[in-house]
Structures are given as structure tokens and as C-alpha cells.
Amino acid sequence: MDANMAEVAKKVKVLLILAIAMTLSLGVNLFQGTTITLDVDGNVIQKVSYESTVEDLLTEEGIILTKDTRVEPSLEALILKDIKVTVTNPKNYTIITNDGELEIESYNNNVKDILKDANINLGWKDFAKPGLEEKISPNTRIQVYQVEEKLRVEQVAIPYETETITNIRLDKGIQNTLQEGQDGFKRSHIKDIFINGEFASSVIVLDTIVSEPQSRVLEQGANDIISTSRGDTRFQEALVMEASAYDLSYASTGKSPGDKYYGVTASGTTARPGTVAVDPRVIPLGTKLYVESLDGTSDYGFAIAEDRGSAIKGNRIDLFFSSNKAAMNFGRRNVKVYILE
User: Fold this and answer.
1) Neighbours of 304 (CB within 10 A)
2) Residue 323: which residues within 8 A CB-CB, separation 6 or more?
3) Buried-exposed string 136-164: b where 16+ CB fall within 10 A, e elsewhere
4) What digits encode the pLDDT tens for the residues 119-152?
5) Helix/strand/coil for 256
6) Against a cut of 0.85, is the pTM above it?
């Protein structure tokens, strides 16, 4: 035998030995079985298989495959030690968007991947329930929330505050305005948030002051003592009121001598100098008063609120005089009325 023939015979012998070794190895594996991991739609088991291919394994396990079933590795793959066989069937899900409901089949069970399979791309503010990273069961309904933000600018008033200054030289109850208040304004940049087309909330992004508010400044009297013909007299409150005058004439009272109520006040007393008519909602009947002139004429003086009149409403007072001439001379003027303690 020449050298070439010897070389060929040698190689054939090696191949036969390798084939016999592989056959023996497979035979041992088939006899002893192979440990595998089988994952069928997320249900994972480990077992010992005596099958030679993935297809044989699935047939032995009674797993029915459809045209849409995915198998990894392929059906023709050999069953080797520690192999993992994964069988995945598409599952049904319902996706709810602002446009309606969409039925979809997906091999995935992760919300984000299911939405990707449905070609639904979420904006960076959009979200879903269940959450994007959640794994869900078949037939789960996925609600997609699309978030839209709109910016607007509006001018908003800044209310002014009121500052009160006490003046001991000003009578108690008297109040003067030293400075009128004025609202300020700010320009608010507001972001309105809409979810699936419906308004959800607003967020102020930026406030810019256009003008500062100007406080209202009041002067509040604190003096509670008045000097009268009887000396210093303490009072509770002083009011500037519009004063008129009346007497016992028919023109003033609508009553004539002989009338049952002629000269009688609403309190049942006899009208006399010092009797005044008031609005009981402002000054209760029976209140002791001192009426001071504001025009340099003599004060009306001490008085008692004992009467009322149909025309005497609010911040008005009617002073009784003994004669019609005195009443007419008084006319109508402003006075300061002290409510005594």
C-alpha cells in the first residue's frame, strides 16, 4: 500500500472512532435523560427529558402549537444539557385611548412593549395605567393618558392692604382716610394641563409684578373725652351726622293740639329741648348724647334719643326745638354726635 492510501485509511479510521463516540454519548444521554427548563407563556418548569429534539419534547408534553406560536430554540434544535425552551403564544389586550378602544395581540406582557406593538408612542408627559413597566395578564385593559400643556398669560390684581393709625387728638369713632388704597397688578404665566382633552389642573409657572399695591391709610380717633358746660365728659363714640330740626307744629309732626299723641315721643315721653329723633338701628332709643356744632354756632348740647321719624334713616338726627322759628333757623347741617357712657 502506498503512502496516500495509508493516509486516507488513517483519516477514515479517526472519523469512525468519532462517530462511534458521539453515538455512544447520545445513547448515554438518552438513557440518562437531560435536564431542561421549559417556559410556556411564563409558566416555567424544570424536568428531565429523554427526547432528542425540541419538537419531540413539545409533542411529548402535549403542547399544541399554532401558526402564531413562537418557539426558541427552533423545533429542529437538539436537546442539550441545561437547554431552555421557550414557547410564547400571542395574548389579547385592550388599549383605551382618547380615540376609542383598540384590541391587540402581543407576545409581550410588559405594558410598554405592548403599546409599542400597537404603534402607540407616548409623549414624555403621557402615561398609562397599569404603569409602563408593569407586567400584566392576558385580557387586561390598558388606559392611555395623553397629556397636553397650554400656556397662557393673565393679569391678576394684587389687593391693597389697609393700615390704621391711631390719633389721640381725634375723637373716638371718627375715622379719616389719609391715603386711598390702590390695587397692584401682576402678570401670571399659567400652564393649563389637559388629560385626554379634558382640563385637569393649572400651574403658575412665573409671576411678574407689574405694579406694587398702595396701602390704604386710615386715621382712627382715640380721644374719648369732650369738654362741655358740665366739664369733661367721657363718651363711647363720636359720629358726624346730618342734622335737621323739628317742633310741635303740624308741618313737623303731622299732629295737631288735641291729638292723642300730640307732643308725645316714640318713647312715650314729652317732646322738649334735648329730645332728638334717631334711627334706632344706628342709635338705640334711650341713648344719652351730646350734639356739637361744626359750624361755629352754639352746640345743641346734651340730648336723649327718645323719638324717631319716617324720614330719619341711617346717619341722620332730628333735633327738637321749642318753636317753629328756631327749627326753621337751624335748617339742615352737619353736627358731631357724641354717644355718652
Assistant:
1) 19
2) 247
3) beeebebebbbeeeeeeeeeeebebeeee
4) 999 999 999 999 999 999 999 999 999 999 999 9
5) coil
6) no
For the segment 264-275, the average pLDDT, to the nearest whole number, is 96
Q: Which candidate, 108, 18, 98, places its Cα nearest to that of 70?
A: 108
The string of pLDDT tens digits covering residues 79-93 is 998 899 999 999 999
Asked if residue 111 lies in contact with residue 136, where contact means CB atoms within 8 angstroms, the answer is: yes
**How many CB atoms lie under 10 A from the CB of residue 92?**
11
By residue count, the chain amounts to: 341
Q: Is the distance from CB of 132 to CB of 179 less than 8 angstroms?
A: no
Please report the pLDDT score of residue 9 as a whole number: 56
Tens-digit pLDDT profile for residues 168-193? 999 999 999 999 999 999 999 999 99
Q: Nearest CA to 102 among 142, 51, 43?
A: 142
Among 3.40.50.2020, 3.30.70.1170, 3.10.20.30, 2.60.40.10, what is the CATH number of 91-145? 3.10.20.30
Domain 149-219 - what CATH class? mainly beta
- Cell matching residue 234: 367721657
Q: Please tell me the CATH code under which domain 224-340 is placed.
A: 2.40.40.10
**CA–CA distance, 78 with 329 (Å, rounded to integer):** 128
- Strands across the sheet containing 175-179: 162-171, 216-223, 175-179
Could you give the CA distance from residue 151 to residue 148 in angstroms, rounded to a whole number?
10
And the C-alpha cell for 233?
365728659
**What are the residues facing 181 on neighbouring strands?**
none
Compute, in degrees rounded to 10, the torsion defined by CA atoms 26, 31, 32, 33. 80
Residue 53 pairs with which residues in a beta bridge?
A: 78
Which CATH class name applies to 3-88? alpha beta
Phi and psi at residue 310, to the nearest 5°:
-65, -30
Type of residue numbered 157:
A
Q: Could you tell me which of 259, 317, 323, 244 has the C-alpha nearest to residue 285?
A: 317
Q: Give the residue extent of every domain in the chain.
A: 3-88, 91-145, 149-219, 224-340
**91-145 and 3-88 share a CATH fold:** yes
Match 419534547 to its residue by C-alpha cell: 57
